[in-house]
Amino acid sequence: MPVEEFVAGWISGALGLVLGHPFDTVKVRLQTQTTYQGIIDCMVKTYRHESLLGFFKGMSFPIVSIAVVNSILFGVYSNALLVLTATSHQERRAQPPSYTHVFIAGCTGGFLQAYCLAPFDLIKVRLQNQTEPRAQPGSPPPRYQGPVHCAASIFQAEGPRGLFRGAWALTLRDTPTLGIYFVTYEWLCRQSTPDGQNPSSATVLVAGGFAGITSWVTATPLDVIKSRMQMAGLEQRAYRGLLDCVVSSVRQEGLGVFFRGLTINSARAFPVNAVTFLSYEYLLHSWG
Ligand SMILES: C[N+](C)(C)CCCC[C@H](N)C(=O)O
Fold first, then answer.
1. In this predicted structure, what is the pLDDT of residue 89?
2. For ligand 1, what atom is nearest to the CA of residue 268?
3. Mean pLDDT in runs of 10 for the chain (288 residues)?
4. Residue 95 CB: number of other CB atoms within 10 A?
5. Do the Cβ atoms of 108 and 77 come closer than 8 Å?
6. Is the confidence metric ipTM above 0.95 for this complex?
7. pLDDT score for 200
8. Domain ranges for the chain
9. In 10 A of CB 15, how many CB atoms?
């Protein structure tokens, strides 16, 4: 089993992640809190209360987890294509796989990464939603003092299952939308590259960026539900399940609730995924 794809997936994921984290914090806050009037308001308030550091809350853990998660996504995707089409990464420009195969491989990668992502994503969302300024002398400490403390508190209060809160919503969010992600990327690359040639860097950037946007646009409704289910354990607002969360969110806030964070998700998705795909292709290319 080729391992370069796993390593390339990890490094490229980490680069994209740092770039996109401030957007991600604003998104999570808009989705789960009602105190902000919009993106700008949320950014200004976050900056005033918590300085620039506020935007980077909850990032250390994802940096570690992206190693696992993005390498599973890209590694499984590429190896699934190897199984389906008997072509390696290098051979795929000359013998492009069908879009059905790309979709199936993307869904497989998406499904497998979702379960590993679930506990990391839960901790990220809980930490991002702590809006207190960084510890000041005399003020009470925030509920979670960091990722490890957060994981340990959830584990103590709810057992190992608590760490997988929202995991189903996350799996449903990621399985089809990562199929869409790779199909969009491949389609855009093929549109602007002569047959058999490697896409240019500019093409990879644009195709990666749009793959990110398409995937996030289709993922946003379940992203909202996922984030809410992850926060529910804290807020005594227990949902009986995914459907209950969907129904009660729509009842209280209307259908618009499914599009919370859509603009910011898309704004974040372009640079993050442009950089992810460019570094992924570059690394694989330079390793031969
Ligand atoms: C499937 N879903 C849309 C959720 C994610 C797809 C893109 C993944 C990328 N690491 C990013 O963070 O943008």
1. 84
2. 13
3. 82 88 89 87 94 86 82 94 91 91 98 93 87 67 87 92 93 97 97 90 96 96 92 74 90 90 89 92 85
4. 10
5. yes
6. yes
7. 94
8. 1-191+261-287
9. 16
The whole-number pLDDT of residue 164 equals: 94
* Ligand 1 nearest-atom number relative to CA 17: 12
Cα distances from 218 to residues 66, 180, 222, in angstroms, run 22, 9, 9
Rounded to a whole number, what is the largest CA-CA distance in the chain?
A: 66
For residues 27 and 263, is the Cβ–Cβ distance under 8 A?
A: no
* Residue located via tokens 């976050």: 46
**Mutation test of ligand 1: which of 215, 226, 270 has the most ligand atoms closer than 8 Å to its C-beta?**
215
Measure CA of the first residue to CA of the last residue in the chain; give whole Å: 16
Q: How far is the CA of 216 from the centre of ligand 1 (A)?
A: 6
One-letter amino acid of 188: L
pTM metric for this prediction: 0.86
Which protein residues touch ligand 1 with a CB less than 6 Å away? Answer: 13, 16, 173-174, 177-178, 181, 212, 215-216, 219, 269, 272-273
Q: What does the block give as tokens for 263?
A: 């603009």
CB 268 within 8 A of CB 20: yes
Nearest to 65 by CA among 3, 14, 1: 14
User: Cα dist. 170→32, 65, 118, 155 in Å?
Assistant: 16, 15, 7, 19
| pLDDT at res. 235 | 63
Please state, in angstroms and as integers, the Cα–Cα distance from residue 259 to each residue in 7, 139, 220, following that order: 34, 36, 6
Atom of ligand 1 nearest to the CA of 110: 1
Q: What CATH code is assigned to 1-191+261-287?
A: 1.50.40.10
Nearest to 249 by CA among 18, 104, 11, 34: 34
- Do 21 and 60 touch, CB atoms closer than 8 A? no
